[in-house]
Amino acid sequence: MTVGQIKTPKPRIQLFNLLRSYWCALPVVISPRAHVSRHAVVESGTIVMHGAIVNAGAKVGKNCILNSQSLVEHDSVVSDHCHIATGVALNSSVYIGEGTFVGSNAAIRQGVRIGEHCVIGMGVRVLAECPSHTQIPPVRNRDPVRPSNFMEDEK
Fold first, then answer.
1. Per the domain annotation, does 143 fall within a domain?
2. According to DSSP H, which parts of 2-100 are helical?
3. Residue-by-residue pLDDT tens, the chain, 155 positions
4. Which domain holds residue 41?
5. What gap in Å lies between CA 155 and CA 143, rounded to an integer?
6. In whole angstroms, what is the distance from residue 73 CA to residue 118 CA?
């Protein structure tokens, strides 16, 4: 069983801590179609999916998800309990704080720091530091935009 993350990493963190309290060994799972440099560090309970790349000098913490085709470039840090979604590009020397979610196809400029428990939306380009608990784009209190061919269920 696995638990993903979008709004909050809390269920994954609770499950991780429960298993650790029972002295369970939480392996690093790396797809044979991923590349992790021998000069990188990937910690317990983390999964590195198909096509993901973790380059030299990078560090990925405990209980993380590096989804398919994600890139953690050299000297970057992904802290514990993060979810780096499909196709994300973390350029060199990026820092991702604990419990942060980075959405599909987002890109983070080299050297940028993202705080703890942030949500970086799909396709977002982050060019400057993000304080902890930031959501980009910000959550709006409105109905989602529906495509023009949207059809409601028949009543």
1. no
2. 10-21
3. 466 676 778 888 888 889 888 888 899 999 999 999 999 999 999 999 999 999 999 999 999 999 999 999 999 999 999 999 999 999 999 999 999 999 999 999 999 999 999 999 999 999 999 999 999 986 555 445 444 443 444 33
4. 10-136
5. 21
6. 20
3-state SS, residue 66 = strand
132 within 8 A of 150, measured Cβ to Cβ: no
* Phi, psi angle pair for 135, to nearest 5°: -120, 125
CATH no. for residue 95? 2.160.10.10
Q: Is 55 left (phi over 0), alpha (psi -120 to 50) or beta?
A: beta
CA 32 to CA 122: how far, in whole Å? 26
Tokens coding 30: 């790396």
pTM for the model stands at: 0.84
141 part of a folded domain: no
User: Could you give the number of structural domains in the chain?
Assistant: 1
